[in-house]
Specification:
about 210 residues, alpha/beta
Length: about 210
């Protein structure tokens, strides 16, 4: 079995020349993305479309970093803010209407724990999935193998090591569910502050 097939099967693999060649293709695209005119929004969208394995209306504020790009599959209207990193050794599946704040890191890549085994240079990737309508706060880290449900908020600075269920607000290191999102949150803006009536009327006309 080739190392590419081993990697894609989420088995132990080596980054041989064939694997590095796939990364080289990605880095050419990232070079274009990360050094283009930051006001060229249409151009950025076009390069992002070429970079990601699947997307629909995705926008990434550069700089952005990933290993392959083709292993990132996004639904509708993904927004990725500045300086995010996705190590997509394994698939990273992101649902519709998701927001990644600045400095979010999603890691599928890992290495053996024992130092002797790790010195062999074998590594692995474990798939990460993120549901629809998820907001991941700044500087959060999503670890290999994690599954995040739909309609979730991950607090800034969190380290997510375990699965997070639907409709949860979760935060901390390690990240834990703080509470569930309820109907009482519908008109909330920031903490206990409500959205003003003018803005709420506009939101209601768009969403309800």
């Amino acid at each position: 079995m080739t190392n590419q097939k081993r990697r894609d099967a989420q088995m132990a693999y080596l980054s041989d020349q064939a694997v590095l060649e796939e990364q080289r293709v990605c880095r050419h695209i990232l070079q274009q993305l990360n050094f283009m005119d930051r006001s060229d929004f249409d151009g950025i969208r076009s390069v992002v479309k070429k970079l990601l394995g699947r997307s629909d209306g995705a926008f990434i504020n550069p700089p952005f970093y990933c290993d392959y790009g083709k292993n990132i599959e996004a639904g509708k209207h993904l927004f990725v803010n500045y300086n995010c990193t996705i190590l997509d050794v394994a698939k990273v599946k992101i649902g519709d209407n998701c927001l990644l704040a600045p400095n979010v890191a999603i890691y599928t890549a890992g290495h053996p724990v024992h130092p002797d085994t790790r010195a062999s240079m074998y590594e692995y990737g474990k798939e990460v999935t993120i549901g629809d309508n998820v907001w991941i706060g700044g500087n959060a880290v999503i670890c290999p193998g994690v599954h995040i449900g739909n309609n979730v908020v991950i607090g800034a600075g969190s380290v997510v090591t375990k699965d997070i269920p639907d409709w949860a607000i979760a935060a901390g290191n390690p990240c834990k569910v703080i509470r569930l999102i309820t109907e009482a949150d519908r008109k909330k803006l920031f903490r206990d502050e409500d959205i003003d009536e003018e803005a709420w009327a506009d939101i209601a006309s768009m969403c309800y």
